[in-house]
## 1
Amino acid sequence: MTFAIVAFVVLLLIGVPVAVVMAMAGVAGSYALGGERMIGIIADRMFSGVSGYMLIAIPYFILTAELMNQGGLTQKLITFNNALLGRVRGALSHVNITVSVFFAGLTGAAITDTVAIGKILIPAMKKQGYDASYAAAITACSSIIGPIIPPSVVMVVYATILRDTSVLDLFAGGIIPGLLMALSLLVMSFALSWVRNYPKQEAIALGAALAAFMAALPALAVPVIILGGILSGMTTVTEASGFAAVYAMAIGFLFYRNLTWKKVWHSLVVTVRFSGVVFFLLAASAVLSWFVTRSGIARDAAAMIASVTDYAFLQLMLVSLLLILIGTVIDVLPALVVVAPVLVPALVSLGFDPLHIAILMIVTLNVANVTPPVGMSLMTAAWIARVPYERAIVASLPFYLSFFAVIVLLALFPGLSTWIPSLLH
Amino acid sequence: MSVLKTARQLSAIVNQAAIVICVVCVLSMLAISFIGFLYTLVTGGALSWTYSLARVFLPWIGLISLTIALYSGEHIAMTLIVKLLPAPLVRLTAIVCLGVIALFAVMLMWYGWEFFTNARQTYMVSHMIQIPQYYTAIAVPLTGAITLLHLVNGFALLEHYVTLEDVVDGATGEHPENQQ
């Protein structure tokens, strides 16, 4: 086992792709457990890792988001949200958050959200006198709502790795925490806007506001279709996500009329490329999980957590801290596929609800997307805003407090994650 | 040098072919899922063959698309520490990384071929539509072979030399891969 752990850490540190590291560490561990004949599991496990029927939803969700993005949806959502919040002090800051909530219902990927919204809103915010580093910070911090509010590729991946938690429960369980994150960001945004005297927008006529709403309406129907279909039990996740992709294509061609075949091809290429990243991690995690399950690492982890404290809340905060530390140096998806097979069984054996842990884990790892040193969303937003990364980090500090408050609430009250799913059963 | 150039051209062609295969698979699955969705909507029942048929395409997308991600040099590695090293050491770690990926690809080919030959003897994807599993199992050694071929691109595959601009371009779709 030591051999596998050493191989894992060394390969990771020298920059070998995370998926290759997981597969090779899994093979090394399997070799240590059963000798040469166990090496062959690499083929079987990688094949199984990408064969689960539910995984069909991953390219569909990515395609839907890409088609919507190509169809100019971002601008329509911003116009609509501006009509709602334009006259409030610090309007564009709040709009940045609310657009991310709507966007979350479509993409479920933080970096896509950062780029799509940031490229439009960051220059607009700078023009209105907002500090560029603040514009970058709010764009990045609000983007991480994407993978928490369903649909979410991260949740599909989680449900694939840990089959005792259904994707339906995860989708339903992410609604309150996602909205809670948006609310906590809005509270901070209102407070900072008031203190720093950020500008209001020009008043928007009712007619223009209604027109903006009508233009955004067909796009806003996508999350309703996906969630409505799945939560009502009318369709499966794969059927609903497939329908959403076809619907996105249809409204792009017929309603918005700005989708071309070239853009559809582009969306498909982006879809297979991004799907490749996700599938690579899933295939490799199946090899590593095979070893982790048999090695007893999860049992040891549970014993270690229990040895620190008996108090459930502190145990969860300890795990959250660990996740944030892991997330500071590694992306959300690889971090999830690496730690979930070890930590989740450990926490379940200590008596925690699997769904509660799942949501807490997804929220916490996403927060790490905007924390230094490797906060991909924040780095991307800083690059768009043309500000040094360090300044964007400083500007994000107040929002870290918002996230911390949400994590504490989620750890303290499991019902925030489990109440809506319980209504479905 | 010309051998390397030819190998890189071949790698690019294979990557384009992989993209086309994956796009065709995604569209085929989409059509199947959409038919299943409409059938459920109209009749309230479920088509029995959609599940089995869609599963034929999934391993192909899942495995072949990972070679596309690798070829594109997507952000899937932890290079924070490596990028702090002096240039010669960065180069050394990059060479080791390529060696590890090569070993991974060879293992995938070798054991994938074994997996494929075993699948020829017994299994089916589904008894419902009688499709032999080797139709999908062949994707495993093929993925290993494509990964090995892509290694001719050297450091371009790794994140050691990827800048933030490359990442943003990738997310906005301005990646060279999308311009074809």
Note: The CA atoms of residues 109 and 141 of chain B lie 4 Å apart.
## 2
Amino acid sequence: MYMNTNTRILAPEFAFARPASLAEAFALMKEHGPGARLLAGGTDLLVQMKMERLRPELVISLSGVKELAGITDGDGLTIGAATTIWEISKSPEVGARVAALREACNAFSTVSIMFMGTLGGNLCNASPAADSAPALLVHDASVVIRSVRSERRVPLAEFFTGPGRTVLKPGEIVTAVTIPAPTAGTGSAFRKISRVVADISQVCAAVSLVREGGRVTACRIALGSVAPTPVRVARAEAALVGANGTAEAFAAAAEIVAADIRPISDVRASESYRRHVARTIVRDALQTAWQRAGEGVSK
Amino acid sequence: MTRQIVRFTLNGTPREFAVAANDLLLNVIREQEKLTGTKYGCGIGECGACTVHVDGRPVLSCLKLAVEAEGCEVVTIEGLAKGRELDPLQKSFLDNNAVQCGYCTPGMIMIGRTLLDENPNPTEEEVRTHMRGQLCRCTGYASIAKAVMGAGKCESREFRLPSE
Amino acid sequence: MLSTELKSVGDGSWRKDGLAKVTGSEKYAPDVSVDRMWHGRVLRSPHAHAKIVSVDTSAAEALGAVCLTYDDVPKMRYNERIVSTPPCLYRDRTVVADKARHVGEAVLAVAAPTEELAERALRAIKVEYAPMQVITTMEQALKDGADPIHDTVHLDGKDVPIRNNVAVQRTIDVGDVEKGFAEAELVFERTFRTSRIYHAQMEPKTVTCRPEIDGGITVWCSTQSIHNTRILLGQIYGLPLNKVNVVKVALGGAFGSSIQMNSVTPICVGLALKAGRPVKIASTREEDMHDHVRYPSQITLKLGVRKDGTLVAGEMRAEIDIGAHNIQAYPFLGGLGGFWASLYKLPNMKYLGRAIYSNKTPSCAMQGFGAPQAHFAVECLMDEIAHHLGLDPVEYKLRHYVGLGGTFWGQGPASKCIIRSDGVPELLHTGAEKIGWEKRPKPGSQTGRMRRGIGMARGFHTSGVGHAKASGAEMIDYSGAIVKLNEDGTIDLIQSLMDHGGGTNHAIAKIVADEIGVPGHMVGISPCDTRTSLYDVTTHATRGVYAGGAAALKAAKSVKAQILHWAARVLDVLPESLVIEPDQELGQGVVYCPNLAERRMTVGDVARYLHINSLGTISAAESMRQVNCPPAYVSYFVEVEVDTETGQIHTRRAALGSDCGTVVNPALASGQLVGGLSKGQGYALIEDNHWDPVTGELASKGFWVDGKTPSMTESPLADDIMTHFAHTHEPTGPFGAKGLGEAAKNPAIAAFANAVHNALGIRFYEVPITPEKVLAALAVQDAQARDTSPSREPAAPAPVAE
């Protein structure tokens, strides 16, 4: 039902805390339970609060927890959860190994949102349209989840459980995203279609594939905005493994994607439109990923 | 709601404000400090009219809690000109007739400034990409793009107002 | 036309309000604050159609808030757009609603010391509604037995019953249509639809009202007319006008949405008067999106032509869904018909326009006011006829357009004039050459994924609504200006005419400077308010420079004559022997006698002489009404690129031409054209609004995330937008100028539709042309090519009768 919201202010009242360490953050979360929400960049949380979809009692800012930001390059990449989308988009390591993620970051709606928003925030907000998720999925990313007592790693493919929902338990914080070093001969790409460029996607897709000579030896295809969570399309992936990297093969895989996804109709696009353009962007992404795989290091 | 003190530098001057947790940086700037150049356009980050600089980075002040500006350097449109010396980008907007109703102008200049700080001679594609989040309903954007591209070619940051 | 006679008119100095705008110091209505001010919030109906059964404000009052309910406000019904004369004012508004007629309608309001407290007070109020039938389509509205949205409308002193939710209807008949159609050798008929888009002006409507100790009020608000706002507030609240002061503040865009007094303004005044203290109501974006949208249209156009394409008869039936209130449907319907009549020579025409209420956001004027809708129908159908006859649309249109010597209907049947300047051939030929019109593809001939096409449309807008009749007008149209000489030779221009971005005030200051003979910087635009300025009806109908400028010019002429009179006394020559010219080195106007070079003094010297000798202030206060409404012609050539796999349409290039007579400020004029293209692109390809058929709720909920408009990335590259001007001189305009503003957008949606047709061979009769519609149409075209779908409408429509 229509509600006269007031986006000029933040109408809900709440307490605010800015812990200086993870330990402090955990303590606050334990004390307040489900009434507490974590604040990173604020570009999702504050919007949802202004639209009156969320009313936390306590907002815990992570801006003081320094150990959550930064990209480290070891055996694979580790991206701190509080690293901004802008920083990720500019990282040479990300650009070199995870081209799809760099492209996805550059496809975030606006530059200011890229500066403010964080990877952890984007994933934990768990929108089915999250721009960063498909690229991470096709690179077998995992999230590092810490609680006061323990640390666990969850493959991103198991992280999302529904629109706005994840496997996070009370008292848990995502502290980093890890991306294993890609196999030699990997190329990846990301594509997004939206009503206007600065927009939430109507459909987005990321692909990664491993190329050996003229053959695809491994393939991952993930889409956003076509399901309750970001999803991979296994049947399309399987169709490409072992196939020659031809335009026909990519088109056929894209057909399978269009057939297998179950998008909904909403204010941004109809179900049939999503199905239709998913075909195009998956095919285009596969073509680009293939090319990049042939060039060795993705640009 | 209880108020707490937040301290940050605003246009070069250290300031402190009594704010509630749910006070937005935009409203502290506009209502407490009466710097009204930064605008409310939509409240949800869709239009860019509220853009300010926080520690040199563009921020949508309508989506930033005032308390999160603690210890930061905040610059608004009013902080760009130094006395009567316009920032080259401000001058370029005037030279290129990139101002009509002017409501989007502060946000455009603030985001344009962050591009030029990193890349003084951007291509048109770079300008378009960087400014995609700013809405304007009057100009059709061409003059604004030219203003941003043109500003980078200015040699000096020091401009006096021309005696007309 | 750039004349060598002009000095400052036509040059490119910084616009006078530019410095304030780039430094953030310009004040708009949302930036105003006064001491001891409280904040107001409006309680808005969640129901699209409902009786208001009861209201309980006790909890709000307990929080210390002041509440304004229907019981508190004057009960008079008014029409908020008093540009129309009283016999044409359809009055169905009250300050807050007696009944909720659309989601978001103002039911009551509260004021409290802070915005946060006002919010809490608002949410503490309980309102009981009795929901009624929700009407969201014209079919529902017109059906017998449908719940009347308004029982009556107050018109010319009487309560006139509303039947079948028809707010108003107008007919126009010229010649003999039946005879005309009988003579026609080909008849074409199509139905066109345009959408209820949102103005998306950057500034949400805001108002601050301070009650004064003498019972009067001072008001700062978003408005296109401070004087009309003043008159209405005086009428509603029974205040003498000399106690109602509306202050001019900068306007952050409007595009027609503030010709009427906005709904928050009288509410704020009511709150301030009740609270006995200043109150400010700042609309949120979501409130603003529920408050006003464009007039949509469903236009069935039938044109009969001879085999050579000469038009012999035309019939137009327009059905307009105006939403919950009749803001200006009567002039809209007249304007729509009149614009149709003015596009091409049509000896026999019949027009029926109907405005129908619905439980949706009320429609109000938006850039063009019926002209874009008329242009869409006519320019697309003419394009179709040209193609059918194998004629070049440009040549076809040039052969039959209404031009020099013809009759132009400025805004409906009540304001007509004979056309005295006409740059159309130049506009079209130049535009065609710039875009490469001859190289455009054959429609439907392309097979690749990306298909480019060029489309054109021509048209105009009026320059004001002036006409010759001394009485019986449908609209008020006059402007006033005060010009005075300061003691140092600078000049103050005091004019209530609003500039909503186009640079109108700046252009008029230049006209004043040039008339008097001083450099442009010597004329300052004074801040003003209704108590210190002459009446100006409003900035609409592209009348700013043509009409407002004419008033200022009249005052400037008087000031110049006075300067010459006094200078003659000092210089001991006859005033007729003197001229005034700007001297760039001195930075002043110099009065001198060409025949006696040593007899000279600056304008500043004259001013000082008058001051020291107590001879008075040179000034003039003049009102002026234009008796013409010349067409400001415009031409659009647009190139689009359609991605046939995604349906997305990209705007690649455009050649936009304007015939605005003398171009007072070329850079600003160019900017208007480019701005028009951007809004036109949005209107043609992207923007739309939907209301839920069951609840009547706005699908976007008023959040701009779902009200997308073009940004820089959707626009063509800067150099791919070319503008040109015709070299004409309008004899009735100040320095030969006509208008430009609305013309900048009027042919846009037709040009885009024609461009898409050129690219795909598919006609779209509805905007926005979204990717989904493109894909659906391509699928139909594809199926027809494979001959698998015989029951569908042909992709290349034929005339209905031969």
Note: The longest helix of chain A spans residues 271-294.
## 3
Amino acid sequence: MKSTDFDYICPSSLEEVIQILDQYQGEVKIISGGQSLMPILNYRLASPQLLVDLQGVADLNKVSISSEGTTLGARVRWVDIENHDGLRVSQPLLCAAIDHVAHYQIRNRGSVGGSLVHADPAAEMPGLAVALEGILNLHGPQGVRRVHAADFFLGQLSTSIETNEILVSIELPFWPQDRRWGFAEFSRRKGDFALAGAAVWFDLASDGHAMNVHIGLIGTGEKPMRLLSAESGLNGRTLTESMIESVVHQSLSAMSFQGDIHASEKYRRALMLEMVSKAFAQAMRPIN
Amino acid sequence: MQVKMTVNGKLFESDLAPRINLADCLRHEMDLTGTHVACEHGVCGACTVLVNGDAVRSCLMLAVQANGQSVVTVEGLSSDAELSALQASFRKHNALQCGFCTPGFITTAHALLTQEPNCDEDRIREVLSGNLCRCTGYVPIVQAVLDARVAYQQMGVK
Amino acid sequence: MAQPILKPVERQSKNVGSPKERIEDLRFLRGKGIYVDDVKKQDVLHVSILRSPIAHGLIKNIQTDEAKKLSGVVAILTAKDIIDRCGSVPLIPIRLHHNPILDSYKQPVIANEKVRFVGEAIALVVAKTPAIAEDAMGLIELDIESLEVASDIETALKNEVKLFSDPKGNSPLTYRSKKGNAQLVFDNAAYTRKEKFVIQRISAMTMETRGVLAEWKAESQELFVFGAAKVPFWNRAALAQMLNLDKNSVQLIENDVGGSFGARGEFYTEDFLIPFIAKTLGVTVKWIEDRLEHLTSMNQARDCDAEVEIACDREGRILGFRGHMHYDLGAYPRTNGLVAPRNITQFLTGPYKVDNVDLSCDIVFTNKTPSGTLRAPGRFESNFFCERLLELAAKDLGLDPVEIRRKNVLTPKDMPFPFPTISPSLIEHTADTECDSGDYRETLERCVKDFKWQELQHLQGQLVDGVYHGLGLSCFIEGGSAGPRENAKLRLEKDGLITFSVGSTSVGQGVETVLTQIAADELDLDMTQIVMLHGSTTLLNEGWGSYHSRSTVMGGSAVTNATDLFKEEIRVRASAVLRCDPSQIHVSAGVASSSQGGSVTWNELVSSSPIEVMGTFASHHHTYAYGCAAAHVSVDPKTGRIKVLDYLVVEDVGRAINPLTVHGQLVGGTVQGMSGTLLEHIVHDEQGQLLTGSLADYLIATATDFPSIRAVVLEQYPSPLNPLGAKGAGEGGTICVGGAIGNAVANALSSLNIEPTTLPLSPLRVWEMIHET
């Protein structure tokens, strides 16, 4: 399982990276942490002519937190998120979800940007990007293109990034401290990809009604998505466990799910319902 | 491509094809065969080495990516004179049988105990879940790492 | 009828019975183990193997011109090259339970005109680096005419798709075990119950993949092959024969081995192909299996189904078993594919006193990776069938699960207890076997007590905090110490170094340490004064190896025979020096002393010539370790997830030479069994394509999956069959897991009337059992 031959370059600026991408027109792959790309290369599922290593480009791994929101550089690693005290406060749902990603060694290398561009439908980060309504900053020869997460993911392992663009960062909206949130994921073993996962959040109005309900689904099989019909079914209402289950059940029944050796369509749907319910149960616990 | 890295404290320089991964480089260019290759797709952890102190899967890293970095393998954590505290704990608890996964467990456990000498059993199991063992059933490995904490605590590291 | 060979002699036990830390660990922990890919040779070329992308087809053409032009490619070989050199494509012999019925089913060392499974070797690329060899593989054009695929037992049995031209079709052989009169018993029994069971296909998934390094020394016309394991002597003979070389010109060298579990070390196609390339091209050449190859071409196992019936009296005493089974062997019988179907048929009654048996098992060939033995072959499967049926019987008869087992397990008054005769059995002494010694109630009682079985009964079948709790039991036997023989050479050199060379091989089980413990005690030496070499054919003329949990008993007993012969020789030499009768000489700890006075050191006695003796131990009788396991599981009805909350296995091994390593075998075997019961599944689609081609899909247990495993080793009933009193004990932990977990899950879900009969018990399957039936 040795990869095909390729050239390698380690540019020291973003401009240089973009220039190379533009020049090679798709025969090039960006390598950041390599945790998703290297297995693909070793299985010879891709044979790029050139690998462009981002480790020489400065400032792609910054975490900035402000009253506008949180920006994660594309090269921010899972271990960086795990160890960032500020993020636990500014983006608690993100942190809770990222705790589930992969394993110790992978977390030292795997990156936010790598996961987003790889777009595995069972991965946590793409699901979070959609659930949190992140904005992805894509830099290309024409400048910066800001793409909403919902428009970025097109399908399994497929995004709207152009061959001459590089993902530089993702912006997550400001997160109020009294926001309710929950995350639940079901995987065969710890660190495995999710068979089903849910990232849920909402705000509570003073009359106890839920507003801004967001239900992000991971592991549907195709791409990360929000359960929009359930969201509108729950918005403006005082949430109860049975109401949630009933609304979500109805929405999920109208969707199709991918079946594979680990989960049939029916089972995946049942798991999804269970994960959404658990995430809501977590969200509805009083804040300490 | 010219590659220069520090491995177990020694400088290594060579001209390498970019596609050679760090595991194969250590094993075949540097004769450090303690790092084992068992899956080449980042699941089993047998190839774990330390890069700048972080445990990483060397099969998922290109040798050229280690340019300018400091790499420590199981050989770098060993002395001929005597077993380290971690190694002695593994031996005491019979935490290895065929030995093929062992270097990966040693490097991973060393990284963990260096960073978190007070880690509990749940954390140990969580971290070690990224290393596969087919022989021991993990029970003695976890016991060995638990017992080895004392030595790392005494070192006063972090 | 088992005759005691030797009474275990009371010996000064300084090392035997002691939890000695392993010698092997000193190099393994430092990364200084030498596995086959670590062996250093000059000018090594690398081989990549082009394997069939389809499961069944006729090879029309293999176009290698483009591939050959690639810089760094040295040669590309196919069946044609082998036929040119050897006259025909050699077939891999059947090592165990060979039957001439299967002669036309044997695996060719390379696909010749036909491919029968995805992963079958078609062409060999020899190049300067493994990467270049793989590049060249991508340039080879294969023209294979697709044939219909028989990817499962049901399809294969129809014989519409035939893998072989032999008129016997895809199921040429049936094993049968008979005892007493099952027909009569079933006709008259107060209670009978019949169930269907299915067990999934799994892979050995050794951490070290396979590898072969072959070196042809033209000057001496000798072939050296590295990477040997398990049964190197047999493999050497097979290889020599295929290459038309004298046995003594072929040496198989055993280095460190990264796990076998029965799968590594059998003779595979590569064990011919790589040496063939070395000899043909006159080069040193290496092939290291990658993980994808491993998942398609390393022996797989377990894939079987059964419809079995139990008959009991009203009090729950088992009167008989009968039924029919099918074992899917994949595309070829391999060297030892027959072991599992044979075992499943002969050993289904396990640890229970059952006098009437009529069981049969068809072997079935399908277009999948060939199968061989995997830890507890046929024993894991049959334990599942037996234990599930017994649990159902207990339920139906209103009996306590402990009580029904208590009534039926073997006790000393039953010993020796014969298993049913298995047929066909062309080698007479292999048709029958019997449990040698023990009180199987003891391990049951000990397990129940230590597990706090009675105290936990209030949880049985209860829904607590959203999950169902269940407790299950499984009693088991573990057959070990397969014959026929093992050899151990002992040599004392002038320099005083005592070196043993034994035919036992390492599979990671600590054979070096265990045998050294035995030798050290026999000679009253320190373990550090002894060198224990093993496995390589350079060490001995004849050896057997490690399989069927035999290396401690067979190798260890050969070691004691060697030390006995050595001491005799010392006595003879010393008697000349000390001028007394050899019977008056006491030999111990490097010294020979006369009861008449005077002593001489061993070193002095070998100053003119070394001592070399050949110890041996022969036995056709298997030992039977036995035990019981208890499991406490929770089942989440919403997700189907099973959690093993607690698990205890108790095994009586007769005598534990090294309690540390024996305990390690029990725990390791248990987790491997858990992995095989709940996680692992080699899945092929209808076209015989492997769907689980990576470790992201083929799931094995990790450190977080089964944290609560406990094991207890007992030594209440030594075996009367060998001087050590030991019983083979490498597989017991695995054997009982399916039964214990299956029963626990059944009990957890008893309020839902769900009875698991199919493995693996994945969350998907459990969920479907709950929600879709």
Note: The radius of gyration of chain C is 27 Å.
